[in-house]
Amino acid sequence: CDAIRHWCGWESQLWLPADSRHLYARGRRRMRVAASVSGTRSSPVSSACWIQSCAEMLCRLSVRWLQPRPALQLRGLGPPVVPAPTGGAKPSALPLWAVASVSAVGPSGAGGWYEALATSAPVQGAEDVLLFAHTASGLPWWGSILLTTVALRGAVTLPLAAYQHYILAKVENLQPEIKSIARHLNQDVAVRANQLGWSKRAARLTYLKTMRRLVSELYVRDNCHPFKATVLVWIQLPMWIFVSVALRNFSTGATHSEGFSVQEQLATGGVLWFPDLTALDSTWILPVSIGVINLLIVEIFALQKVGMSRFQTYITYFVRAVSVLMIPIAATVPSSIVLYWLCSSLMGLSQNLLLRSPRFRQLCRIPLTKSDSDTPYKDLFAAFYAKFISRK
User: Fold this and answer.
1) Closest C-alpha among 171, 108, 109 to residue 371
2) Mean pLDDT of the chain
3) Which N-terminal stretch is annotated as signal sequence (predicted)?
4) 12, 166, 224, 326 — which has fewest CB within 10 A?
5) Number of CB atoms found within 10 A of residue 76's CB
6) Among candidate residues 202, 178, 180, 181, the one with its CA nearest the CA of residue 190
7) Span 238-254, pLDDT tens digits
């Protein structure tokens, strides 16, 4: 008990609430009395007294811990959000998946995780970029959103995508050497296992451990670790989220700039069948277009992979499901966000097609691989025709 008490820091009593410290003191007194009677410090009687007091104390604490706590108040997240008057005619542009978090707003006006994200520094930076593009270009808001998307995708994600293809090409060129090493290593391990009498499990573990080390050395030698190819995801996904939340702030009137409401400008900054960028797209043209383009991107990726592994197959089906799920989600957010998603998907499709060009790959110094083709677009059309059209 003394060792446990010392390890848990019970001697200090600092971790105990004020109304539970008397239980601790009572247990200590019981132990002293029991020790004086039995003549030993760690007698069974003293231990039983201590355990009884600990049980009473834990019961008291469990009642306190199970009581509902008030919501945490987030402080210092930014200026207070003052929604612009909408006249009660427009539906709320708040996404359905954020209502549960933002609805639990305390008396001081602090919200949940979504409100913390909406007032974070990266989102405010995205708002500044959008406002700068709108002010500098003088375009209406639909043109400013299009211009910002093209600029961000061209200046940030396109170089990262080219770097991703550079790494993947070097990894692909290493596959013959990796297969040769695996074949020779398997033979060496089999001979060694016969000499030393290893079991099949021990031989297998030795093979896997040595193979991992040799493959890692190859990646270090050519500076092409596959994890470097994921840098595009870690940059593109947060950027997509921050710009989407910034447009949501604009559409709901949560952001004002120099005395004017951005929401009022977005209400008249649309074009064609969506003149109001703060309203939902009742025609569903934008949401369906997003789903179709995303599915097209997934199919282009699947067609260029001849022998996909089981994991790659599962990922492909998962991304297809997400692309379909984006259609009803896009129908519940303001048209400004959906327009950004559509422009981003179109840029992603153009980016994937551009990176298949032999001239562009040569310009980016992407190594040649066995899977490269001199006529990539003709091969892509033939594969698409064979998969979706000719078999009907």
Assistant:
1) 171
2) 76
3) none
4) 12
5) 5
6) 202
7) 999 999 999 998 888 76
Task: Give residue limits of the domains in the chain.
Answer: 2-65, 125-388
What the block records as the tokens of 66 is 């199970």
Residue type, 331: A
For the segment 82-128, what is each residue's pLDDT rounded down to a tens digit?
A: 444 444 444 444 444 444 434 434 444 445 887 888 888 899 899 99
Angle subtended by helix axes 285-303 and 310-330, to nearest 10:
170
Token pair, residue 248, equals 């949501």
Closest CA to 118 of 222, 10, 270, 248: 248
Is the whole model's pTM more than 0.85, yes or no?
A: no
Q: What are the beta bridge partners of residue 274?
A: 271
3-state secondary structure (DSSP) of residue 261: strand
Structure tokens that stand for 141 in this block: 């808001």
Cα–Cα distance, 18 to 134 (Å, whole number): 58
Task: Return the structure tokens found at 341.
Answer: 């998603």
DSSP secondary structure string for all residues of 319-386 = HHHHHHHHHHHHTTS-HHHHHHHHHHHHHHHHHHHHTT-HHHHHHTTPPP-TT--SSHHHHHHHHHHH
- What type of residue sits at position 216? S
Residue 4: pLDDT over 70: no
Give Rg (Cα) of the chain. 31
Crossing angle of helices 231-251/158-196, nearest 10°? 140
Per-residue pLDDT, averaged over 150-168, amounts to: 93
Confidence bin at 51 (pLDDT 50/70/90): low
Rounded Cα gap, residues 252 and 86, in angstroms: 9
C-beta separation of 101 from 231 below 8 A? no
Given pLDDT bands bounded at 50, 70 and 90, which one contains residue 377?
A: confident
**Could you tell me how many helices (H) and strands (E) the chain has, helices first?**
16, 2
Length of the chain: 392
The two tokens of residue 108 are 């001081």
Give the pLDDT band (50/70/90) at residue 260: low
Q: Closest by alpha carbon to 240, among 333, 338, 327, 341? A: 341
